[in-house]
Write a structure and sequence with these properties.
The chain is an alpha/beta fold. Helix content is about 35%, strand content about 25%. The mean pLDDT is about 90. This is ABC transporter ATP-binding protein.
Length: about 325
């Protein structure tokens, strides 16, 4: 598939800093891909996403989005992207709808008209459609200064989607959202991705949101320290095993030994799932079991291990 984001040897060093905030990272993202960019605070995530969205100048490297070079064609890059920043970027002196309307005009979707009632029906329909998904349709004409933090976040999401971007950058998009709104947003984003082939670039501290991504890049100290599908990252770093036990544990251990099934005993019997799958192990056992639990690693477990290993290497 065509590459919609291409990053080569990207570097960023702030003035008076003694090291790079982004230190020579490279990656590419295909059209329609769901990509997550993870790392602890200060790892370089927000700096990277700020560069990719043209709000921060890079020190060196090459960035292309939608085939457009960021240095030579920044306006064309901006026309292809939508952004939900970690920190709010709304005009508090305007109503919610006015924030959306000025954003739509800025992107060249419509000519400016001084009132919502004067805007085309296509604009009105799009605004109400998005506002209803995020449950702020009754608040569209209220001033932003009366909104809670969660409502401001919802408005930023509506504003970022109004022009149907080909690439959507999400920097902690569900921060401040309640669980129902969070689920509604992700359901809608998956629908948009499927119907419009939108590429999604996500940074988040909710690692369950990254479980369903196509590829994950984990960054620390400005460098990519792990890259791959969520499954690949989990399989290479976090153990997959079966916990079992029996009223007659000695009999169970003897049977496992006879059938050459490796195990560890620590409170319960732990069978690493390296040679056999869980179902295969269970089929081989005749002894009555009182405990049977499969441990399937999560991306969060892998992430914690990767970051811990990276920090240990930095100390040594």
């Amino acid at each position: 598939m065509a590459k919609v984001i291409e990053v080569k040897n990207l570097k960023k060093r702030y003035k008076k800093a003694d090291k790079n905030a982004v230190d020579g990272i490279s990656f590419s993202i295909s059209e329609g891909e769901f990509f997550s960019f993870l790392g602890p605070n200060g790892a370089g995530k927000t700096t990277t996403i700020s560069i990719l969205t043209t709000t921060l100048a890079k020190t060196s490297g090459e960035v292309k989005i939608g085939g457009f070079d960021m240095d030579r064609e920044p306006n064309k890059v901006r026309g292809h992207i939508g952004v939900i920043f970690q920190n709010p970027s709304l005009d508090l002196n305007l109503t919610a709808e006015e924030n959306i309307r000025f954003h739509a005009v800025l992107y060249g979707l419509y000519t400016f008209r001084p009132a919502f009632s004067m805007m085309p029906d296509s604009y009105k329909k799009r605004v109400y459609e998005l506002a209803e998904i995020l449950t702020i349709e009754k608040d569209l004409f209220r001033p932003i200064k009366t909104f809670s933090g969660g409502m401001k976040r919802k408005l930023e999401i509506v504003r970022s989607l109004i022009h149907k971007p080909k690439v959507l950058f999400l920097d902690e998009p569900t921060s401040g959202l309640d669980p129902i709104s969070r689920k509604s947003l992700w359901d809608y984003l998956q629908q948009v991705r499927k119907e419009q082939n939108t590429t999604i670039f996500l940074t988040t501290h909710y690692l369950d949101e990254a479980e369903g991504t196509d590829h994950v890049a984990i960054v620390n100290n400005g460098k990519i320290i792990s890259y791959g599908t969520p499954e690949k990252i989990k399989q290479t770093l976090v153990e997959n095993y079966l916990l079992i036990d029996s009223p007659d544990r000695n009999k169970l251990k003897k049977e496992l030994q006879e059938k050459k099934i490796k195990f560890l005993e620590n409170g319960q019997i732990k069978v690493p799932l390296t040679k056999f799958k869980a179902q295969e192990v269970i089929k081989k056992i005749d002894t009555e079991l009182s405990v049977m639990q499969i441990h399937a690693p999560t991306l969060e477990e892998a992430y914690v291990e990767i970051i811990a290993n990276s920090m240990e290497k930095d100390k040594s």
